[in-house]
């Protein structure tokens, strides 16, 4: 938990010269739920790797969310609407003196040019997303250079989920490992480990395609806090009407999808919102993730999340016996990361997240859990001990030690077995039938 708080705090001193502008505030709010660039929240495995005396790493297992992608068709259309109908209006209300935005912020929105592929190629991995995952692969290679050099065919496995953004992420990761012989393994039709929910009939019907699961979001969007936010946006933009929830979301999407993490380049569209507004919108994302894939859908998340964890322990058991793989990586959705959080019992609040009340001290924060490129990395170490070997497993979330588990993120083999062996019993019986419309 501690690292969450530290990352979430902003240490910079605000030096606003005249008005409270977005372009010149040193302390911009950068947490955009599951559309947060990885760069904003990541650690660095090269620094955080736990080194133990007389030990060597013999296997690395990881689950990674794809890197930054474009918005889906539906959200892209809503963003297109803003560009066509609201953008000029934002500029003209400023010109006639109705807007509370700063001159430079309006100028930046006016001059902002979209990279059209963001809206024309729904769901595809963006350039930034490719680079995010490439960089993760590169840092992993630099952390384990001996282990990951000259990998033979049966020593690795890279498995993407269904769809190009996962395959592209896997390719990016391999490029980062800097070994062009490596190939990805597509598991046509069998997503047991990489995305078990995608073929899980009961989950798709009861949760994924059930609009009632967003009940708490609907409640939140009727609270005074949320309604005041909409009014504030209207007032700041100088609109004589209050934008719909959908149009607020579309402006939020313009802000977060065009915030370039790797270039540390904020989006001028974020100037539409105050920091408080951004926190309110972030909470909407938290509620959605919580009730779709998290503790709010525990009947499914707590079962489906165990399937890849069983694969993790199985791989490490094999590696321990000398016939495992040196590296296994899966390229998946935010959904999977959300479910792993539940299975590992992380970032759990004593009471459920509610629409009626936003707890600003909540532990559950999608901005840190299912960020673009978010990942769980598990490292199996073999340590020389008198006449035989001892084993330990270190766990990392977003390249930081997962301190909530074992001693600062490193488990003895016994501790690891105690936590992970029960996962071996998980099945997908709960799914009842197979869902075939994978998207
Ligand atoms: C727009 O984005 C695409 C994909 O991310 C990239 O290939 C292209 O170079 C970008 N274009 C510009 C002008 O930056
Ligand atoms: C955005 O606002 C327009 C009216 O200005 C409305 O017709 C449209 O449905 C809204 N879009 C969304 C996604 O709510
Ligand atoms: C796993 O299943 C086996 C056989 O069904 C059972 O004996 C065992 O107690 C189960 N273990 C756990 C940890 O649930």
TrEMBL record:
Enzymatic reactions: (2R)-2,3-bisphosphoglycerate + H2O = (2R)-2-phosphoglycerate + phosphate; 1D-myo-inositol hexakisphosphate + H2O = 1D-myo-inositol 1,2,4,5,6-pentakisphosphate + phosphate; 1D-myo-inositol 1,2,5,6-tetrakisphosphate + H2O = 1D-myo-inositol 1,2,6-trisphosphate + phosphate; 1D-myo-inositol 1,2,4,5,6-pentakisphosphate + H2O = 1D-myo-inositol 1,2,5,6-tetrakisphosphate + phosphate
Compartments it resides in: Cell membrane
GO molecular function: acid phosphatase activity; bisphosphoglycerate 3-phosphatase activity; inositol phosphate phosphatase activity
A GO CC annotation given for this chain: plasma membrane
InterPro entries: His_Pase_clade-2, His_PPase_superfam, Histidine_acid_Pase_euk
Uppermost EC category: hydrolase
Major localization class: membrane
Disulfide bond sites: 55-383, 255-270
Keywords, in A-Z order: Cell membrane, Disulfide bond, Glycoprotein, Hydrolase, Membrane, Signal
Signal peptide: 1-18
Enzyme Commission designation: 3.1.3.62, 3.1.3.80
Family: Belongs to the histidine acid phosphatase family. MINPP1 subfamily.
Protein name in the entry: Multiple inositol polyphosphate phosphatase 1
Protein source organism: Spodoptera litura (Asian cotton leafworm)
């Amino acid at each position: 938990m501690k690292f969450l708080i530290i990352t979430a705090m902003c240490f910079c001193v605000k030096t606003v010269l005249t008005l409270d502008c977005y372009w010149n505030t040193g302390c911009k709010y950068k947490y955009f739920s599951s559309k947060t660039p990885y760069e904003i929240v990541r650690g660095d495995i090269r620094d955080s790797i736990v080194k133990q005396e007389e030990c060597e790493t013999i296997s690395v297992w990881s689950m990674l969310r794809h890197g930054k992608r474009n918005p889906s068709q539906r959200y892209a259309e809503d963003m297109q609407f803003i560009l066509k109908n609201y953008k000029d209006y934002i500029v003209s209300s400023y010109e006639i003196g109705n807007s509370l935005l700063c001159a430079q912020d309006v100028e930046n929105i006016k001059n902002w040019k979209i990279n059209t592929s963001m809206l024309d190629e729904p769901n595809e991995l963006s350039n930034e997303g490719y680079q995010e995952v490439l960089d993760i692969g590169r840092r992993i290679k630099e952390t384990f250079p001996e282990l990951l050099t000259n990998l033979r065919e049966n020593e690795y496995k890279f498995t993407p989920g269904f769809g190009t953004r996962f395959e592209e992420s896997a390719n990016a990761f391999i490029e980062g490992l800097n070994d062009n012989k490596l190939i990805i393994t597509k598991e046509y039709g069998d997503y047991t480990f990489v995305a078990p929910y995608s073929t899980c009939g009961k989950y798709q019907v009861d949760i994924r395609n059930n609009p009632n699961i967003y009940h708490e979001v609907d409640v939140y969007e009727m609270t005074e806090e949320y309604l005041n936010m909409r009014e504030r946006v209207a007032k700041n933009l100088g609109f004589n009407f209050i934008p719909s929830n959908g149009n607020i979301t579309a402006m939020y999407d313009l802000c977060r999808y065009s915030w370039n993490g790797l270039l540390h380049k904020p989006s001028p569209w974020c100037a539409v919102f105050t920091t408080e507004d951004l926190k309110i919108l972030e909470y909407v994302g938290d509620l959605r993730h919580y009730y779709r894939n998290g503790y709010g859908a525990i009947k499914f998340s707590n079962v489906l999340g165990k399937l890849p964890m069983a694969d993790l322990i199985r791989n490490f058991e094999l590696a321990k016996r000398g016939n495992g793989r040196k590296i296994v990586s899966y390229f998946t959705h935010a959904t999977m990361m959300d479910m792993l959080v539940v299975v590992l019992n992380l970032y759990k609040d004593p009471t459920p997240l509610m629409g009626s009340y936003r707890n600003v001290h909540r532990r559950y924060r999608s901005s840190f859990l299912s960020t673009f490129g978010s990942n769980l990395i598990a490292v199996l170490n073999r340590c020389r001990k008198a006449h035989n070997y001892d084993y330990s497993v270190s766990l990392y979330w977003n390249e930081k030690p997962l301190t909530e588990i074992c001693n600062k993120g490193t488990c003895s083999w016994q501790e690891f077995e105690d936590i992970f062996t029960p996962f071996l019993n998980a099945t997908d019986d709960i799914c009842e039938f197979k869902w075939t419309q994978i998207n």
